[in-house]
């Protein structure tokens, strides 16, 4: 049982739920739910993102095994609960599930899934060690995840592809904050993250105004703002490792509310509610399994 829990800890289940929210938001933006003939493609893309995200998170711990032995020895690999070889095989299995599910739908989704795998491995192996490239690379993974959902309707992907820059900016800002999780944060970096957060909120609101769904969007964007800025302000006042960790955790889980805001901005309130219902699940899982 302890080994099973170790593998589940490697996956960071609370984070995986947020990846599903990304894809559902992309599908909502595409307009697929307005005239959905079948929900089978939705299921395939959700399975795909689960596999891709879990694979990326697992390989993060594989590549960080040496560093974690010093900074986070309680994690499954450095604690000896899971071997590097077993974790690698586990990660390959999930990547295969993710790419295979996307390929089962259509070639475009398969291509995006492959790009996500490459972006994850690039970040885990090299980019994370760079101040600018690392956050941008991590943000790219989430931006591509939104595009994976959008790929359910090819013309929609062609039209709305640039919206992927919003989750890219948002995740880049969280990655900037996370640099202080072990030794404490830098207030300058926290200021930059706050500006990026504000940019994300303003962008979603601008889209909602363009789509004439601003009031529906506000139902989800206001809780999102409260969830991310509260811990960030606390971390700014006292930039301890503990407060930084709480800000990062809140930022990751709040992705669910950001994705609900996307569905609201495009007038798909039913999907927005479904996405919001993922929030208590993610919060519950975060009590047992680490988010960062």
Could you walk me through the main structural features you see in this protein, from its secondary elements to its overall organization?
The chain has a single domain, classed as Tetracycline Repressor, domain 2. The model has no long low-confidence stretch (mean pLDDT 94). Helices cover 78% and strands 0% of the residues. α3 runs parallel beside α6 and α9 packs antiparallel against α12. With 292 residues, it is mainly α.
List keywords for this structure.
Tetracycline Repressor, domain 2; 292 residues; mainly alpha
Outline:
With 292 residues, this protein is an all-alpha fold. The protein is built from 15 helices and no strands.
The appropriate CATH architecture is Orthogonal Bundle
Residue fraction in strands: under 5%
CATH homology group = UbiA prenyltransferase
- As a whole number of angstroms, the C-alpha radius of gyration is 18 Å
The whole-number mean of residue pLDDT values reads 94
The number of helical segments is 15
Per the CATH scheme, the topology name is Tetracycline Repressor, domain 2
Overall number of structural domains: 1
Low-confidence stretches: none
Biggest sheet, in brief? none
- Text of the CATH class: Mainly Alpha
Helical amount among residues, as a percent range?
Answer: over 70%
Number of strands: 0
- The geometry reads as globular
Run of helices and strands: HHHHHHHHHHHHHHH
The helix/strand class is mainly alpha
Cα(first) to Cα(last) distance is 22 Å
Transmembrane segments: 12-33, 39-59, 80-102, 108-124, 136-154, 160-177, 189-209, 215-238, 250-279
InterPro entries: Prenyltransferase_related (IPR050475), UbiA_prenyltransferase (IPR000537), UbiA_sf (IPR044878)
Subcellular location: Membrane
GO molecular function, one term: transferase activity, transferring alkyl or aryl (other than methyl) groups
